[in-house]
Amino acid sequence: MKTILLAGSNRSKSINQQLIEYMAQSIDDAEVLNMHNYDAPMYSIDLEYTQGIPKTIKKLNEKLSDADTVVMALPEHNGNFTAFFKNIIDWLSRENRGFLANKNVLLVSATPGPNGGMSVLNIAEQMLPFFGGRTIGKLRVNNFYQVFLNGKVIDKELENELNAALNNGSILI
């Protein structure tokens, strides 16, 4: 069973990217995508008609089509997706409206503070069915810098929650 992990961020030191890289270590047949490699110009129907779908989006769609499960780590900006990730979704939906068809999707959000992430997770959960995806779980990782150090989770409770989320979706080794 193939699992794709991606962070909805283009930040070079994204805590959500760090989180999925850690999570991937517990998953057999996992591939971590760095979304920097799938950048695209701001979506516009005029741009789509004149230049077509960007090659990076076509490649991302191919990667996603090979997956059974997708883990999305979503930073929250102003209670929503990052502009970067929303743009990727807009392009993907133009390439393939069902880019998450029959995919199980685990939603996670790492935040530096104590209360972030829930808005974006709820928005993502509501959005997934439009593209054929099924939410199999949601998990917030708050106070990231207090529970994660040198590429590892240092909080036993969080470790248990991550394992439970991965196990619930049957994507652990």
From TrEMBL:
The record's annotation in Gene3D superfamilies points to:
3.40.50.360
| InterPro entries, per database record | Flavoprotein-like_sf, FMN_Rdtase-like_dom, NAD(P)H-dep_reductase
Residue span(s) of domain NADPH-dependent FMN reductase-like: 1-138
Any one GO CC term of the record: cytosol
**Pfam families, per the entry:** FMN_red
Which Gene Ontology molecular-function terms are recorded? Answer: FMN binding; oxidoreductase activity
Query: What is this protein identified as?
Result: NAD(P)H-dependent oxidoreductase
